[in-house]
Amino acid sequence: MAVEEEGLRVFQSVRIKIGEAKNLPSYPGPNKMRDCYCTVNLDQEEVFRTKIVEKSLCPFYGEDFYCEIPRSFRYLSFYIFDRDVFRRDSIIGKVAIQKEDLQKYHNRDTWFQLQHVDADSEVQGKVHLDLRLSEVITDTGIVCHKLAARIIECQGLPIVNGQCDPYATVTLAGPLRSEAKKTKVKRKTTNPQFDEVFYFEVTRPSSYSRKSHFDIEEEDVDKLEIRVDLWNASNLKFGDEFLGELRVPLTVLRASSCYDAWYFLQPRDNGSRSLKQDELGSLRLNVVYTEDHVFSSQYYSPLRDLLLKSADVEPVSASAAHILGEVCREKQEAAVPLVRLFLHCGRIVPFLSSIANAELKRTQDPNTIFRGNSLTSKCIDETMKLAGMHYLHVTLKPVIEEICQSHRSCEIDPVKLRDSDSLDNNMETLRQHVDRVFTAITTSGVSCPTVMCDIFFCLREAAAKRFQDDPDVRYTAVSGFIFLRFFAPAILSPNLFHLTPHHTDPQTSRTLTLISKTIQTLGSLSKSKSASFKESYMASFYEFFNEQKYGDAVKNFLDLISSSGRRDPKSVEQPILLKEGFMIKRAQGRKRFGMKNFKKRWFCLTNHEFTYRKCRGDQPLYSIPIENILAVEKLEEESFKMKNMFQVVQPERALYIQANNCVEARDWIDVLTKVSQCNQRRLTFYHPSAHLNGHWLCCRATSDTAPGCSPCTGGLPANIQLDIDGDRETERIYSLFSCYLGRLEKMQEACGSRSVYDGPEQEEYSAFVIDDPQETYKTLRQVIAAVGTLEQEHAQYRRDKFKKTKYGSQEHPIGDKSFQNYIQQQSESSTHSI
Asked: Who has the most CB within 10 Å: 4, 376, 431, 597?
């Protein structure tokens, strides 16, 4: 879900690795230890929570989180909570990173000191304020100046203690005066509409001659300010909660008698600054924040066409896609957008076949086939992650869940064995686990996605042709990917592949490590498998397995998944689980006298139906066939005074659902929209609000079957299993080429050098693979030209935006530091260009 900006879509995403915390303050009791978890928050809205690490002051989490960010935000925050014996959660501290500072920590492990959390530091939201200064002449001809302060509305206020009943106090403050007035309380809303005006005397009536508002004496204005404080009306005896403030000096009215602007709320000046931050410990994080500015498709045609014909370029090392892999510092950087683009355009198999053949020509030993971190191996890895995730879940998730729930010790290292453990029993338990996992894998060949089978067929044929004297090379070329790079990593770290919700406990993690090692060796088909283990206890354990029996099963499996033209006729018919989880739904009123209350339900979406039930595993209470989903849209907050709501529109009624946070709401809307996109009966107009009290809140129409009043926002049809935006991926590739433009130019120099000089290779150019200097130079010239054209479009967009955007607007409120920096950069660039 992108933010639209006049022909441009803006996507925000963040990838986070939550490492560990250390030196947390001890619990004030005899035990001293804490049971802690960490949350990820956009401002103060929780979007992810780690598992609880028990009895530790240095908890290790090791959890990864990725999300598309569906709204604007000011802070990416991380909170450390402690859960006591009564299951009560208390905050230990937080890390709050401003949006404009995220690039400082881009993709590197960083230790952050935990900060104290109090009402003065928990601020979010913005306020629309209008100030007007006017002259009032008394009956005796005396002039005084009055200020009208109009607080219009607020947006994005936080929910405190489960509620948000906001009101504002407006104060005219100076050294010798303080006059405060208060708005009405607005109930159950984070976007209150106040629209109240308060009047203040700025200058006292005096007998001197009349003065214009432009001539007010400086001492009358410089020492005065308007302060707006936002509060949450509380029913608790501790008083109302502070939500934030803004301070506006009256000097803003010198140039004009009126001033209308949006402001970000700020923390109170008297916050807890004297407290020592290092008392709370620290948290290790790795944050990758990405912001993509994507134009319409025609802007990317030259670069996209150049990339897509890479498979047909001879040699492939002279193609645009291969060149991207050469200039990027990390092959993974290039592999991710390339694979997504080629998958989106249906060109992934010929591309991978081409670069794999080129790599095989440079490989001398069949035992080292695709063993390095080359562009080929990284691209195939990424393809398996994208195309094979459902296959991985169907194959491994049931058995992994069973192993995680068993909690049986499988330690076979005599050094690590506990006194209460039996080595023989542990070996037998581990062997049973390995057998179940191995059987699940080797009997899953019919479910392997077609695109993976086509790739494996190309690898098998190319390897057999390159090393004709090695009869097993057709197997090892494939097993290195499917076992070593696909199944083994998923077994080792199931949380990274969404097979488990969190990082497993130490004992289970050790069990999965031993299983992964064994499965990797069983699938390798190496000549001496026992010798492949560094540990003697693993070599002893491996003797449990009959090499002939397991080897035949592996070969049969590899033959099946790498056979030419293999198709699974049942793949379309079988329900594919797309998403599931708890949400809150409003009763639909299907019973005449039924109550329309809100209840928590377990929702499940497949490519066939959308259902909900009381708990996971129960029978569905209600099912919506996909063909009955006519629209999926956001629901305005004012309908039920609830955030993160959306509606699933059916022929008879709409189902109103509240997600847990904005990220989950966005994900559900996205996947529901895509799975129902091909429905011929989809609506073109919908009601953005609910039908309550006999009418639609949006258009006031009384009939509950009245046609919608707003156009639907559903995008173009997309593959529900491969959610890929081709223009966005091309924009990312452009960004990489732009970032490594210096290396592109270096590669051009290398092509020129090799064209005229046939001697020993110069060291500065040796990092590049250049098989045909002239063809490579030609492609480089086309790439640089396409990148230059796109750079001009981005520069023009930035100039236009700078001219049109007003600081203090709703999109860029006063206090938006990232936009302040943007204005400064644009001003400097404009000065340099003159």
From this structure: 376
